[in-house]
Design brief:
Distance between the termini: 40 Å
Structural class: alpha+beta
Number of domains: 2
Strand order of the largest sheet: 1-2-5
Helix content: 25-40%
CATH topology of the largest domain: GMP Synthetase, Chain A, domain 3
Order of helices and strands: HEEHEEEHH
CATH architecture of the largest domain: 2-Layer Sandwich
Number of strands: 5
């Protein structure tokens, strides 16, 4: 049997951990010159679940990158297990959820004073929990997530 790369081991471990917690995902590892990465794709998860996944899986990532200064760094050097240089978690939303959020936003704002880009950004921020600029419009979560 062929041996899995460290990134492939990370992808497999994370997929297994998420499955134990009832979260379906796709996990993909990639290798490139001077490193590797793992991408985890989940669907329709509330912001607090994504935050929990990020904090649970942070130990598997040893690399950092600052695009402003074009510098890479290192973290989690003490972790004894497989790691990947970069770990990305993508949360995808079904169109029905996105449309529901958009309808709710449109019902709360004066549409004439906002561009289409503003409305798309408000929708994305609302779905991902980035409501710091939208607090005046939305007091309660719109989406009813399964417990």
């Amino acid at each position: 049997m062929r041996k899995l790369s460290p990134a492939a081991q990370v992808a497999k471990l994370i997929k297994s951990e998420l499955k134990k917690n009832g979260i379906a995902c796709k996990a993909k590892s990639s290798s490139f010159s001077m490193g590797d990465s793992v991408t985890i794709e989940i669907n329709n998860q509330p912001p607090w679940v994504v935050d929990a996944i990020e904090s649970q899986t942070d130990k598997y990532e040893y690399g950092t990158f600052d695009a402003m200064t074009d510098c890479q760094g290192f973290k989690n050097r003490d972790f004894d297990g497989p790691q990947t240089k970069y770990l990305t978690i993508n949360n995808r939303f079904d169109e029905s959820i996105t449309l529901e959020a958009r309808r709710h936003i449109l019902s709360k704002i004066d549409v004439e004073h906002h561009s289409e880009n503003d409305i798309q950004l408000m929708t994305w921020n609302y779905l991902t929990g980035s409501n710091r600029f939208l607090g005046c419009y939305f007091k309660k979560p719109l989406i009813k997530y399964a417990a």
